[in-house]
Amino acid sequence: MALDTISISTALRNYLAEKALSGQALTSGQLRASLVEQGFPGAELREALFNSTQPAVVVDNLPAESFGRQPGKDAAPVADFTLRTLITSVGLEVFGYPQEKSGALFHDVYPIEGAETTNTNAGRVPFALHTENPVLPRAVRPEVLALCGINNESGTETMILPISRLTARMPADVRAALESPIFTFRQNESFEMNGYAIQRKNMVILRQRDGFDEFRWAAAVNHLQSTPDGDAALNWVKSIYEDLCERVVLQPGQAVIFNNHRCIHGRGSVQGRRWLKRAYGISPSPLLSTSGLIDIWDALAQPALDHTF
Ligand SMILES: O=C(O)CCC(=O)C(=O)O
Ligand SMILES: [Fe+2]
Fold first, then answer.
1. Ranges for the TauD/TfdA-like domain (predicted)?
2. Distance, CA 159 to ligand 1 centroid (Å)?
3. Disulfide-capable partner of 83 in 165, 196, 279, 286 (CB 3.0 to 4.6 Å)?
4. How far apart are alpha carbons 307 and 136 in whole angstroms?
């Protein structure tokens, strides 16, 4: 089985390329309305992401970023606009955190010198399957992630596993353990918290919501010790997840968008040049500032949020 792919029309691609470079500042509402008018398949994407057991879609025939740009040095306005288009088209807002990448809304993903052997998106060694920002409460975790290819000379695979595929094979005792509040999460290294580190104890990894299984999974190294049953359940997941996942080599003009509560994702090794752009999407919320930021300190201090998942 491969991931579903939606290929947009060439007329739409040309429209997006022109808008991306027009310098026109559109609100989300204006952009959404113009996408509907142009026939962008936002409703189809939304249906897949929120109402199906395969909540990950590859979008093809998007405008490609111009050649010769360098990650970390040059802007990538076409890729940024593509990500904004995808996320806006499904009714969500692009957002970031002041404590991650200085509040950037669009993140450069490429191998960084000195980080080659880290289990992060800046590494070259395989990056284990994970949920994005699992240490944070659900209300401020990305609901969807979108990744857009700029250069993938290294032919690196992005791996995506819909959780329903995992739970369909899961023994009852593993499920019971993953639904027990016995797991600890800690923050990703990409967060800058004045030297503090967030750790969240007594959390479950798996639960049902709105009729779908949701998963909260740190890349292998970020789960601190659990109980023996918990550790056995973690090992069961790790023994099977790579065999079950889908793999896509994102090329220029291709993107993938997926539900971050209902999929885990990761990446193969990076041997040559590679550059993706990444953005997070979330439903409109009072926690979101007008510039699209969610302050982690504020979110963690909110007594009204559900901090249990
Ligand atoms: O590079 C990729 O394909 C995915 C990396 C990743 O997990 C991320 O940037 O969140
Ligand atoms: Fe990730």
1. 92-280
2. 9
3. 279
4. 8
